[in-house]
């Protein structure tokens, strides 16, 4: 391959009229593309010694990108037919800059003599510079696909469609499609030059899942990891477009196509199809190199978005699995509850539970594992599960807290947690309660008057308390009991005493009206006291149902 240079195509000569061999190298290839000989100048230019590369395929040494493999195949075909082949290449293992290449037939030996010279870098097309800045602005998969399509149209192509491998999105499955089956993909985005986005999306719907035929150009690109040039819409795509209004006209508008695999970290994560109309020059081997640069950037960003999407799904599934199941409320009680985790989490360190007991009694628990986020949630779910099981065997409140304390002390992270454990007896209009470092409950009387129930505070769970004192409290008819976590009353901008005062005021106002319900009061109070999302918030309101009066009979 003799180097083609700008101007007359001949290497420039120095003043002494001796050839300047800087940046010039030669080597030979056999008909299969294996390196047959390797010059000293090739070692100087590329850094590989001859014994190390002789016998290896040139695509394993220098021309390592998918687009360059196609260039080599074309060069070998040309010299096999007795013709000289020239091109400019960049990327792969060629090193810095761009290289002009010439491949000449070797008479009687087969293969070709390759002459390479490094040339001044050509300016990168403006659309490719813009693509590098635009693609990957978010970790949203669909938005990334849109950015890739917008980068390619109209600067590089008249149309572009971006696909992601569905097996990676749905199940993170890395295996190849089964034999005889083409890949299943999800269309992320499409752009047609001169068409509004709504029209394009109507023809090529984002999010649509489809299967490529095993012999289709896009399936071949994904299977081989290399680009595929073709000059007409494949049958399955034409049929699919033809079922939509205006689809046949769109399909017939293009006559040059390039399917590029999207490869990131050695995995084919999707495919991009670029199209040109007869008004634009058909795609050529130089376009493959540019498309390869765009595809490389797009693949990494799409894979990053895919991995983020996977982690999001995993975290959400785990978080939802930590949420309690549907709680059973005994007939003798009215219960309302509200839980607001801090930030974007689904769950945090707070928990509450209701466990029916024999004779119409019920256990009500509110707990708070210190901190918030996934670490606090992991502690919370262990304590909540243990408390639920212990409550079901009807142990006294002090015994339950003692066992939870031992459990928390034995955890690897040595967490702290607060908890209030109550057993409410509607028949006796009373409750027994014990606390482990938790804030005291508030009692709201029917007229709106409030008072704090004075319970021995106890130590938080995990500190090795020897016992937790139990207190019995009478519940006046129509009174409402409020259990809560400290996130409702305490923050960096509000003291605990001010927060407790605000809670009592909000509860008294919300429950004073004759039509006030526990559900509406719960929502009103948490909304009124919620600060800047500094901590998880839990509020549980419980009231003993009052028996309905029996109508007096005739003559009473």
Low-confidence stretches: 1-21
Summarize model confidence as the mean pLDDT: 83
Q: Outline, from the CA principal axes?
A: elongated
Please list the strands of the largest sheet in the order they lie side by side. 8-7-6-11-10-9
CATH homologous superfamily label of the largest domain: PPM-type phosphatase domain
* SSE-based structural type: alpha+beta
What's the alpha carbon Rg, rounded to whole Å? 37 Å
Indicate the CATH topology of the largest domain: Phosphatase 2c, domain 1
Helix content: 25-40%
By CATH, the architecture of the largest domain is named 4-Layer Sandwich
Number of domains: 3
| Total helical segments | 16
CATH class label of the largest domain: Alpha Beta
Strand content: 15-25%
Q: Tell me the distance between the termini.
A: 118 Å
This entry's quaternary arrangement is single chain
| Tally of DSSP β-strands | 21
Largest sheet: 6 strands, antiparallel
Concise synopsis of the structure shown:
The protein is α+β, with helices and mostly antiparallel strands. It has helices spanning 40-46, 50-53, 58-61, 66-80, 126-134, 141-152, 166-171, 197-203, 217-224, 235-242, 247-251, 285-322, 374-392, 397-409, 496-512, 518-529, and strands at 24-29, 35-38, 85-90, 98-105, 112-119, 159-165, 184-192, 209-211, 228-230, 256-264, 267-276, 333-340, 350-356, 362-369, 417-425, 430-436, 442-444, 450-452, 471-474, 480-484, 537-544. Residues 1-21 have low confidence and may be disordered.
Keywords:
single chain, 556 residues, Beta-Lactamase, Phosphatase 2c, domain 1, 6-stranded antiparallel β-sheet, 16 helices, 24% strand, disordered N terminus
